[in-house]
Amino acid sequence: MTWVFDHLGLLGDLTVTHVYLSVLPVVIGLIIAIPLGWAASRWRPARAILLTVSGLLYTIPSLALIVILPALISTKTLDPVNVIITLTVYTIALLVRSIADALSSVPPTIVAAATAIGYRPLKRFVGVEFPLAIPVVVAGLRVAMVSNISLVSVGALIGIAGYGQLFTNGFQLQFVTEIVTGIVATLVLALIADLVLQLIGRLVTPWTRVGR
Amino acid sequence: MNLLTSWLFDPANWSGSTGVPARLVEHLWYTALALVIAVVIGFPLGAMVGHTKRGGFVLVGAANVLRALPTVGVLTLVVLLAGIGLIPPIAALTLLAIPPIMAGAYAGIGAVEPVVVDAARGVGMTEREILFQVEIPNAMPLIFGGVRSAALQVVATATIAAYVGLGGFGRYVFDGLALHDYPQMAGGAILVAVLAVLVELVLTGVQRLVVSPGLRPVRTSGGIQR
Amino acid sequence: MKRTVAGLVTVLVAALGLTACGGGGGGDPLAGGNSGSQSPSDTITVGSANFPESQLLAEIYAAALTKAGVKVSKKLNIGSRETYIPALKDGSIDLIPEYSGVLLQYFDKSATATSAEDVYTALGKALPSGLSVLDKSAAEDKDAIVVTKETADKYNAKSLSDLAPHCGDLILGSAPEFQKRPDGVPGLQKTYNCTFKDFKSLDADGPLTVAALTQGTIQAADMFTTDSTIEKNGWVVLEDPKFNFAAQNVLPLINTSKASDTVKKTLNAIATKLDTKTLTELNTKLGAPDKPDASKIATDWLASAGL
């Protein structure tokens, strides 16, 4: 425990980096996955292609993707951007399916009603279909968030900061306290992020609680 | 493209104790071992909670905590506590596989229509018979879904065994990383991805065999009427 | 009710938008993160390899430079030389502690120099433009093949020449890069005609290598001569009469454009104080049960050395 209190500064720095590296991909991933999920929910061929590709992307080991990216898109080898892109890819792969499923499950009668009262397609998507899909999207976001938080640590294997450094460093020095600190910190961060997402999910969908 | 495939298509990398076939056997061995242990631990827990409808909150919470566990952290910790060998990677992979298997069993069995369970009880089946002859067969699609997603994650993550000196396709990724040998690293990554797809195909086939035809996805239009 | 929802959605969207812009550094998410992009010209980014001694040396450099008024950022525990040299070339890092002999072989696979002076001279010529080394220290940390006392006794081996006829019975363990390094598996084969039964990829004299040699998974290991675990376990460092491993003086490898006079003066002052005995002692401190921070050991040593 003393070690933890002596290193609060270090833990603070690592927390900032860890949060940044795990939250940013979720945000970017969501923004990209919404149009893709929408396309997948509308056109059968798009759905087949997008879901197959995202399934495939998910099978690439994260470490491999992080280290191969610089060769593919000529980023710098130690740039955290490689971690961000990798996690964004996983987030998209995960969210496209849940957004597509969520949009497909909006009852056709509701869509028809909205069209009938004069909603144009884009406005109807923003005002009717997407809001109704939010609970499922939030569920997908929660999974993506938690898995990103635990995956950022992989970056430490090539020297990118985050709680993962506590694992590689603790391992080399055979120092159990440091590794346990890293595991606990990851779990706490995942828990907090999950609660925040649940809260946001509740705040943006007040209608789901009406009459209960 | 050459950067990605030059190593993979070099026949020299396909034989011997460090060749692709040998590494494939290692990779499948770690995967199978971790999956079997995870099923043995996770399935009864999920089935129990799904059947009794008690402790669902605790189970879902436990599954979420396990999901958030950083695999690299678990791996390095177990190495320091238990030494090198098979135990650390298998422990880390098992912990990774338990949540989907447990959640699949719980969700599947919990979602079996109460009418069906009541009917079974009504015709005099014991709780044990209800679980094994009614609930589990009816829950097979979700149970299998859990196993498949666990298998996919374990196949992709079994690469970390190489971080602590073992084999498997991860050997190519870590050796390639240390040598800054992109083709080797890319070869390893591609092999893992291909293996994951094959495992998925095989499990989908197995699922067709073990899941009752009455439970195929067409059930929304037929099957059990509400 | 409806207004609240609309308001919240607006706030959320705005927040997402802001985060995306803020994080992307000017709207382009590929433009780089907060710490990975090329450091500003007045900051030196110190890197290190993925073993404790390298991190300690990097901490020493970083602390001394900070004290001399240079802006420093750290990027430690990167990986093997094969990983961090490209990082040095592309500007991800500017300075890293190095070992003269292996560094020479990295840039010149056919290098033959073995003495400290020859290696240093050859290294100066072999470095690509844009990179330079500063003064070498007397501290040497060589790779060496280490075996257990039992193995050494069994084959009556004191040196690699003695062991050579029996290599085929033994499994060698080291970091993956040792398979391809000129002084690694290929070098041992060429210099001593010693071909091991098998090679096991572990780590650069880290916990895996130590555990594997203790447990007998491997019978010979490539380790660093300043590692205190060798002595602690009573293991035998095999002599290297044919100089497979060249002299390995600790020295700073730096991006030439960052080597200002202040930087040179500071790092060269460290080189004059650092010898093998000091380095071994510092390593022992690093491995002590209370796990002191490398940065603390670094500043303590700098103070005691009057730097």
**Helix fraction of chain A?**
over 70%
- How many strand units of chain A? 0
Biggest sheet of chain B, in brief? none
Structural class of chain A: mainly alpha
Indicate the proportion of strand residues of chain B.
Answer: under 5%
Annotated CATH topology of chain A: MetI-like fold
Overall mean pLDDT score of chain B? 88
CATH 4th-level superfamily of chain B: MetI-like
| Sheet with most strands of chain A | none
CATH topology of chain B: MetI-like fold
| CA-based shape of chain A | elongated
SSE topology string of chain A: HHHHHHHHH
Most extensive chain interface and residues per partner: A-C, 43 and 43 residues
- Gyration radius of chain B (Cα, Å) is 21 Å
SSE arrangement of chain B, N to C: HHHHHHHHH
Oligomer: heterotrimer
What is the distance, rounded to the nearest whole angstrom, between the alpha carbons of the first and last residues of chain B? Answer: 54 Å
Strand share of the residues of chain A?
Answer: under 5%
Mind telling me the CATH class of chain A?
Answer: Mainly Alpha
Tell me the distance between the termini of chain A: 45 Å
Could you walk me through the main structural features you see in this protein, from its secondary elements to its overall organization?
The complex is a heterotrimer of chains A (212), B (226) and C (307). Chain A is mainly α. Helix content of chain A is 79%, strand content 0%. Chain A is built from nine helices and no strands. Chain A has helices at 2-6, 8-42, 44-57, 62-73, 81-104, 108-116, 121-151, 164-172, 176-204. In chain A, helix 2 runs antiparallel to helix 3 (44-57), helix 2 (8-42) crosses helix 5 (81-104) and helix 8 packs antiparallel against helix 9. Chain A starts with a helix and ends in an 8-residue tail after the last helix. The mean pLDDT of chain A is 89. With 226 residues, chain B is an all-alpha fold. Chain B has one domain: Orthogonal Bundle (MetI-like fold). In chain B, helix 6 (114-122) packs antiparallel against helix 7 (127-157) and helix 8 packs antiparallel against helix 9. The longest helix of chain B has 33 residues, at 20-52. The radius of gyration of chain B is 21 Å and the shape is elongated. With 307 residues, chain C is α/β, with parallel strands linked by helices. Chain C has two domains: 45-140 and 247-304, Periplasmic binding protein-like II (D-Maltodextrin-Binding Protein, domain 2), CATH 3.40.190; 143-237, D-Maltodextrin-Binding Protein, domain 2, CATH 3.40.190. Chain C contains 13 helices and ten strands. In chain C, helix 2 (52-67) packs across helix 13. Chain C starts with a helix and ends with a helix. The model of chain C is unreliable at 1-37 (pLDDT under 50). Classes of the chains: A mainly alpha (212), B mainly alpha (226), C alpha/beta (307). Chains in contact: A-B, A-C, B-C.
